[in-house]
Design goal:
alpha+beta, Multidrug efflux transporter AcrB transmembrane fold, Alpha-Beta Plaits, Multidrug efflux transporter AcrB TolC docking domain, DN and DC subdomains, 3 domains, 5-stranded antiparallel sheet, 4-stranded antiparallel sheet, 15 strands, about 55% helix, elongated, xenobiotic transmembrane transporter activity, transmembrane
Length: about 725
């Protein structure tokens, strides 16, 4: 992670140098990075937050954001300096003109995290570290941009208006950038000169981005699995197996994996037929289950052991269970991708019949050969031998006994009957009435247990009750006071969790319900499936709430209801870009659309509006101060803000690229966020230059001077220069 942060800083500095063509100007802007990062460490310590993979990822995401405000300030100072102002005048006026835009941009970036801080879900704990890191660093970078940058610029810029400075030419880069600028300005000119063209641009850009978001939104996952150096198997042998039998299964698994042990082969680096070497191996056998696990010498290759485990574990017929690399988030056996299908009802035999039917439907739709794993709890059969005594009411009445008295007698000879609680030396202990230990040592002797009747006669239990040899469940599970059999389902890694949930719902639960369920039997989905639904609903509301909060902040700063609405329209552009960025990453490495990746869209809400803010503020500055006509003001604002928009966008993108491109500890946690933010920023930077001028052209009245526009769109005097 530290290497990625340093590489991101270096790449961001390279982009700035490419645009500014000046070591001094690049150094001024990049000075915001170390100051803000050090200040962020202090802020996190004051708030009681620790430095971990998540918080460091937040700082890495913020590397490009830290220079955004400084870029805008320095670019505006440089523009005024080239127009002929002295360095001091350019520094003062340049910082003042963009102060409002920078404040709005920083606040919109920060306020989107406020709802996440009060999110009382599992993912909320992960979001808080990123939120605190980004918030502290962005606010500190704003302070640096309005204090340090103008001061250094005034001292380092040459006197004389900067006209004599000849920038270094890069032929290929310059020609490409000039061509893009010309194309953008031509489109802007057409939009401001024709409302029909402007309307077409708005409809095409907004419609295409919204449609792309709707059509290509990936199927959801809950949380990333992580990359722990551990593969474990939880297997459940067929009913009736005892401890010796389950130990035999564990011994067979050990024998299959022993050739991969380091201590057996000696060389920890050599492959065993292409498989990684095992550093640690363990197993624990219980009468009803076996737990096996292993770690590899190379932590990055531990997942390669899963097929080896599966082959050894499921060799025993009738065995169920999970073989997985355990999640760092899920505490259950099935991890962060488990689906629990609860089958509840009053009759255990009816529950078993429904559970067996459900397993056959699951295996037909989600075959185990494709990687799906199932674990029934407690089991699918009556695997525990059981003796049931059914008291005969008539015979009991003839002997003057009640059913309770009969059952208490049997309990006394079986497990013992608690009759009182006594105090011995200050300790309270149970007083238990028990028969001789060998009285019920064998199943055949149960019928011979003595029972004393009301008349004092001693009769065998078999004379008062019918005794049946049968089988029962190995464990009795209850959920909401109902007997329950739970089918734990772990879908194949290539199948999205949302897709698996939908298939279980439509092809298993609904089909069983259509075929008819026994009286009182209910089917419910829980586990990660339930948490995914709750978290997705909460995250959708968080994104909508973030949009509302950003709009309100902009409305307060601009004292206008119209301009913030124009700026907010740029958000759908980012969602389409975020989905495209995630799709590109999935071409090379699997990156699911989990709830942590969803945070990338929340970050985009606060960052993509920054480009629109710059254009809108600059347009109103030209209308109010420079008295330009509306069309000219929009064209001039777009022309002036193309360079800072692309400078800030590219520094953000290259600052995050190492997090996406280079694997490392915890990369599966933040790679999805980075791909979404990079894709969203990249696409929105291009489309915003087409959309915002067209929207401004439609909303602002076209005038020959700036006076009439002032009457139509209220822009406060104190913000007019900004």
């Amino acid at each position: 992670m530290r290497e990625n942060i340093w590489l991101g800083i270096v790449l961001a500095a390279g982009v700035l140098l490419l645009f500014l063509r000046s070591w001094q100007a690049t150094a001024i802007v990049m000075l915001a990075v170390p100051i803000s990062i050090v200040g962020t460490f202090v802020a996190m310590a004051a708030l009681g937050r620790t430095l971990n993979v998540i918080s460091l990822a937040g700082i890495a995401f913020a590397v490009g954001m830290l220079v955004d405000a400084a870029i805008v300030v320095l670019d505006n100072i440089d523009r005024l300096h080239r127009e002929g102002r002295t360095p001091a005048q350019a520094a003062l006026a340049g910082a003042h003109q963009v102060w409002g835009a920078n404040l709005a941009a920083a606040l919109t970036t920060v306020v989107v995290f406020v709802p996440l801080l009060i999110l009382n879900l599992e993912v909320g704990q992960l979001f808080r570290d990123i939120a605190v890191a980004i918030t502290a660093s962005v606010l500190l970078s704003l302070v640096v941009a309005i204090t340090v940058v103008p001061t250094l610029a005034a001292r380092l810029l040459r006197a004389g208006g900067g006209q004599s400075r000849t920038p270094i030419r890069l032929p290929v880069v310059d020609r490409a950038s000039e061509g893009f600028v010309d194309l953008t300005l031509k489109l802007t000119q057409r939009s401001v000169n024709s409302r029909l063209v402007a309307l077409c641009v708005v409809l095409v850009v907004c419609g295409a981005s919204t449609l792309a978001t709707w059509l290509f939104l990936p199927q959801r996952e809950y949380l990333p699995e992580g990359n722990r150096n551990l593969v474990q198997a939880n297997l459940q042998p067929p009913p009736g197996y005892n401890l010796a039998a389950t130990s035999t299964i564990a011994d067979a698994i050990e024998a299959a994996l022993r050739p991969l042990w380091v201590m057996e082969a000696g060389d920890s680096t050599a492959d065993r037929n292409g498989l990684p070497a095992i550093d640690h191996f363990f197993f624990t056998a219980y009468p009803t289950s076996t737990f096996v696990g292993a770690q590899t010498v190379d932590p990055e290759r531990v997942r390669e052991l899963i097929p080896v485990f599966q082959e050894a574990v499921f060799k025993e017929p009738g065995t169920y269970g999970f073989v997985q690399q355990p999640s760092i988030f899920g505490r259950s056996v099935s991890g962060a991708r488990g689906i629990d299908l609860h089958i509840s009802g009053p009759d255990i035999e009816a529950l078993l019949a429904v559970a067996q039917r459900a397993v056959s439907l699951i295996e037909a739709d989600l075959p185990r050969a494709e990687g799906t794993q199932i674990r029934p709890l407690p089991g699918l059969e009556m695997g525990a031998p059981e003796i049931r005594l059914y008291p005969d009411p008539i015979r009991l009445a003839d002997n003057g006994l009640t059913t309770r008295e009969f059952s208490e007698t049997i309990d006394a000879f079986n497990d013992g009957l608690r009759v009182a609680e006594v105090s011995v030396d200050g300790d309270r202990i149970d007083l238990v009435l028990s028969g001789p230990e060998d009285q019920a040592a064998a199943t055949q002797t149960i019928g011979q247990l003595p029972v004393i009747t009301a008349s004092g006669l001693i009769v065998p239990a078999s004379s008062l009750a019918d005794i049946v040899m049968t089988a029962g469940p190995i464990q009795i599970r209850h959920r909401e006071r109902q007997r329950t059999i739970t089918l734990q389902i772990r879908p194949a890694s290539a199948l999205a969790l949302q897709t698996a949930i939908e298939r279980v719902q439509s092809r298993v639960i609904e089909r069983l319900q259509a075929d008819g369920l026994p009286p009182g039997v209910r089917l419910t989905l829980a586990g990660t499936a339930d948490r995914l639904s709750q978290t997705w609903a909460a995250m959708v509301w968080q994104v909508l709430l973030a949009i509302v909060v950003v709009y309100l902040i902009l409305a307060i700063l601009m004292e206008s209801m119209t301009l913030p609405a124009i700026i907010i329209v740029s958000v759908p552009l980012a969602t389409a870009g975020g989905i495209a960025g995630l799709a590109v990453v999935n071409l090379f490495v699997r990156q699911p659309f989990d709830m942590l990746t969803m945070l990338g869209f929340v970050i985009l809400v606060g960052t993509v509006v920054n480009n629109a803010i710059l254009i809108a503020y600059q347009t109103m500055h030209h209308i109010r101060d420079d008295k330009l006509p509306t069309a000219a003001a929009i064209s001039e604002a777009t022309s002036n803000r193309i360079r800072p928009i692309f400078m800030s966008t590219l520094t953000n993108v290259v600052g995050m690229l190492p997090l996406v491109l280079f694997p490392g500890a915890g990369s599966e946690l933040y790679r999805g966020i980075g791909s979404v933010v990079i894709g969203g920023l990249s696409l929105s930077a291009i489309l915003t230059l087409a959309l915002i001028p067209a929207l401004l052209s439609l909303v602002l009245p076209h005038t020959r001077t700036g006076g009439a526009a002032r009457a139509a769109v209220v822009v406060p005097e104190r913000y007019a220069a900004e």
